[in-house]
Amino acid sequence: MKPIYIFRHITCEGPGYLSDFLERHRVPYRLIAIDQGKCVPPDLSDTSALVFMGGPMSVNDPLPWINDELRLIQQAREQNMPVLGHCLGGQLIAKAMGARVYANGAQEIGWHPVEKTDAASPWLADLPARFEVFHWHGETFDLPAGATPLLRSAYCENQAFALGSMLALQCHVEMTAPMIVEWAEMNREALAVPSASVQSRHAITCDADARVKNLHAIADVLYERWLASVLEHAAARA
């Protein structure tokens, strides 16, 4: 099986728990560190799937690699290749598929619940109707044509969608406890004045180990479902 490409846009927003999940399932992957000047591959000939991680930039920023990643996502759609996006990554999928990405009504930072939509099955069949995940975003996306909405929250209507074998997440299910602490420390100023949608540094890091354990159980369901489509697609290409 060819490796999954994982695109990292800033050092602190790597694959996190996803890398643990892939290694546990013995699935090869290749990290493409955009933050270190690595180039976006020109095509999909050497990969089985695409994963896009988060970042503080906007998909609407005039950065040259953004157009390259959008082009690669469009190629993946044409070839029915699975794509997974976390936060900025989900927004990249949405934009590549023709949807609008724009400022959300409020910043959503910290541990907040999401709820499944009526159309969420089969992607979320093994998850409860409502559960807690981690958030850190100020923008959101509209749904591309033909997409199935999966999750919503009180502060963001479109938290996740599926489009074929593409899974776009606005929330962060890849977090580890060290990542939680690192982000909170790096963004002390942004968390200095908490609100209903922006939690304090203490609220974010409090009981992080237990919350992350629950988050990984959620991630396992999402990643298992997505990985099944990756393995199916790879087998069809073999």
Distance between the termini: 8 Å
CATH class, named Alpha Beta
- Structural class computed from helices and strand pairing: alpha/beta
Strand content: 15-25%
- Quickly give the CATH architecture: 3-Layer(aba) Sandwich
CATH topology term? Rossmann fold
* Backbone shape: globular
Count of β-strands: 9
Compressed to H and E, one letter per element, the order equals EHEEHEHEEEEEHHH
In total, the number of domains comes to 1
- The whole-number mean of residue pLDDT values reads 96
Can you put this structure into words, describing what you see?
The structure is a single chain. The chain has a single domain, classed as Rossmann fold. 32% of the residues lie in helices and 25% in strands. The protein contains 6 helices and 9 strands. The chain has a 9-stranded mixed beta sheet. Helix 1 (17-24) links the parallel strand 1 (4-8) and strand 2 (29-33). Helix 2 packs across helix 3. The longest helix is centred in the last third of the chain and has 30 residues, at 208-237. The radius of gyration is 17 Å and the shape is globular. The chain starts with a strand and ends with a helix.
